[in-house]
Design goal:
With 221 residues, this protein is mainly β. It folds into 2 domains: 103 residues, Jelly Rolls, CATH 2.60.120; 109 residues, Jelly Rolls (Sandwich), CATH 2.60.120.10. 0% of the residues lie in helices and 48% in strands. Strand 1 and strand 2 form a beta hairpin.
Length: 221
Amino acid sequence: MMTKAGCHIIRFADLSWSYPNAQHPNSEKEKIYWHDDQNHLTLKYVECSKPVTENSTQGSGLYAHTLLEGSATSHNNTVLSAMDVLLSGQIPSYSLQQSTHAHFFSCHQNDATLHAIQTQVLASSTAAWDPKAGGLLHMKPLINKQAGRLMLTAMRLSAGFTVPVGSRPHIQAALVLEGYAQLESEKLMPKDFMVMDSGVAHGPIQFPEGATLLMLAMNPA
C-alpha cells in the first residue's frame, strides 16, 4: 500500500484471496480492501463463482452487499440488479441464480446497535442521477439514511474532471468501477481502491478519460 495525493492506494492485484465459506470453500472468495478500527468497518470485494445459498444469522452489526456484476436473489426472492444493495443487521441471505460469477462490494460495520436493521433490498433504480459541478459530475445515492452513519454513492465523472484538494470530517473511500483515477504518478484502474482519512487533506484526483466510482463515507458520530 502507498499514499499519493493524501489517499491510501490499495491495488486489487496486490491483495490475496481468502475463502470464508468452510462448507463450500470453492463457492465464495474475498479480498479485504480495508479495515477501519475507529469505525469498526471492514470493506471487501466478494466473488461467488457457483450457485450457492447463504442463510446465516450469526454475527452482529450492519452488512451491506452491493451487486457489481452477475446475478443474485435476496432472502425474499427479489432479483438484484447491478448497483442494488442488500442491507441487513445480520449476515444477509442471498443465492446465485446462475453459475456465472456474481461480484459484490461488501461493507460490514461491527456495531451491535445496528443489529435491528431489517434485511431489505435498496434498488438503485429508485434513485435518480443528480448532476453536480455543471453536469460534469453525477451522483446517485445507494445508501443514504437507511444504515446509520454509513453512506454509499455511485458517481459518474466526466472526462477531464478533477477533484480539488480538500478534506472531510469523516473517512471516505472509493472503488473504481470504470475508467481510471490519476493520483500524482499513480493510476488506479477498475477494482482498485482508495481511502481518504478523516481530517486529512487529499487531492487533486484527476479523471482524464472519465470514470465511475462507488464512494463510501462514514458520517461523524
